[in-house]
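Field: sequence (string)
Field: structure_tokens (string)

Example rows 1 and 2, in order.
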Amino acid sequence: MEISSCESQGGFNVPIKLGMEFDSDEHAYECYNEYAAAIGFSVRKEYANKNKVQGYVTSRKFTCHKEGYRSKDKRDQTVQKHRKETRTGCLAYIVISRQSNGKFRITSFDEKHNHPLDPSSLSHMLPSQRKINVAQAHEVTARFMEITSSESQGGCNVPIKLGMEFDSDEHAYEWYNEYAAAMGFSVRKEYANKNKVQGYVTSRKFTCHKEGYRSKDKRDRTVQKHRKETRTGCLAHIIISRQSNGKFRITSFEEKHNHSLDPSSLSHVLPTQRKIKVAQAHKVSVRYKHLCQMFSQISSEASESKEGYELAAKCANELVVKLKHVKKNESHDDSAPSKSIENELSETVFIDNTNATKVTGLKRKQPTCRSKTLTMSFMEMAKRKNNTSLLKSPQCQTDKKLDHLPSLLSCQVTCPSLSDASMTTGVAEASCLKDHPMKV
């Protein structure tokens, strides 16, 4: 598919043509990437030829992201759902070569594509167009600063100041973590000094999660995509020291950050804010148990008829869709007062527990025989062998189908019936049969 003349004349502000020169290969890539964003495709770095002595790039090729075809899949043949084929063998590309003056010139250029191009409104979703430039980054940072400044003006419900005392170092950490959630950052435990004799904590430091810088990467040098740098050398911190009364006091506090803070609506995404409290965990546990009881009753009643089963399945599908919609639009702002768990359960219950039927098919796992077997000594094995031989004697062979046989036994001590002989110990049965032999 060729680019139309109207698009090539005024559709984009980044013209590409043969003979254009660039200061570096990266500059050429950026220009071609802007051209691709205006046209509607993504760019792939194909190859780079380098000087064997000094190692600088002599030539390079940039192609369309749909160039060529995917190589043969060498994975297991039992894979049912393979990845969708995205390449079409597109031949659009440019080749740049290094000149004697150190600049790079376009020596080959093909602008024809064999696939439909994406509209400019969706170009930001293409692989090579997902990065924002410096101007956009500054704009986003400015917006975040405005939001955080407006939230910080409203006041923080968890104040932090010099001289505050806490019962323990964990109490201080929890307090500073709540303060960080309100401000929009995460907390890292930096160090802890301990008494060398008794081992208790004497001082501790908590910092912002962007404190310092990452240490040098000692992995293999062939790694192409390293982890993104997240630290900025932030100096925000608190230091607590143990006092003579056993409490911890803030002896140093720095509240200034050198990076933009996250809004409170996104604080739950931060590393130290992802844990739920004990009260929240209790509410979730109570809701889960109650829902299990309700749906067990629904399953037992709906499985008795075909119409009930179809109705339950239809309602379950609708419920799953609605739950996904609720979870997607759920707000994480807990400022509004929430109802108690008892009131919430009383409003959501719609099944009468008095009419609940017993769920069939759910059996508790029985313990294996291996778990109950105990090692026996030689004397115990000999005693059991004698008992079994006494029970198998002709005097004890009777017909189990007769119901009146237990009445023939005139035992003063209550003896079990012969049909349950396997459930009792061999010693008791043998003694009972020896004292009162049966006559048929």
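Row 2 begins here:
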Amino acid sequence: MPLFLAKSFLLFPPKTFFSASNFTAMTSPPKTRLRGVVFDMDGTLTVPVIDFPAMYRAVLGDDDYKRVKEENPTGIDILHHIENWSPEKQRQAYQTIADFERQGLDRLQIMPGAAKLCGFLDSKKIRRGLITRNFKEAVDLFHDRFGITFSPALSREFRPYKPDPAPLLHICSTWDIQPSEVMMVGDSLKDDVACGKRAGAFTCLLDETGSERRDLHGIHVNDGLSREGVDENF
């Protein structure tokens, strides 16, 4: 039986992560059939292991890092920041970013409950896709190490990056599914939620630390995820 969700903003609470028994819809009809879920990878499907502040310092240098951080209090978008650099400077920056990402590969861990949730979605015949700003090597390792495959799985080799809606719209087109029948799940308001909303999809925020809540103005937040919330919508 298909999963139906009212078009709303959903939030996974701290330390709960993914749980098929804790998946809740917040609002009442009108309802839309949910046919696909697209996940972010770092901090969503996997436990965060990359030291992003150290990466940004290595790419920007201490002085520019401090300046850019002050100019972007909600977070540095390093990939967009280096887009207008010279080709050689860009190449060096991408190499530094890739070095940090490779250092994290040996410590790559799946988020607790993610495999169980994927099995739950499979049992309901809901498709699973992936969009990450990490590189393809990390996506391939995730698939190989944990035996869970997402298709399509778009890494940063696909342009433009999140928060542009293009990667999510590409997945919807590949599936031949409308964005209004898809949910984007991630741990970043400015990348994952923005991407989903711009594409016209459901959006779901995984906020382990509560750090994103200061930006949830006018958005309905759910702190409790329950199996009853799923059962009500099947």
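free_text_note (row 2): Residues 87-105 form the longest helix (19 residues).
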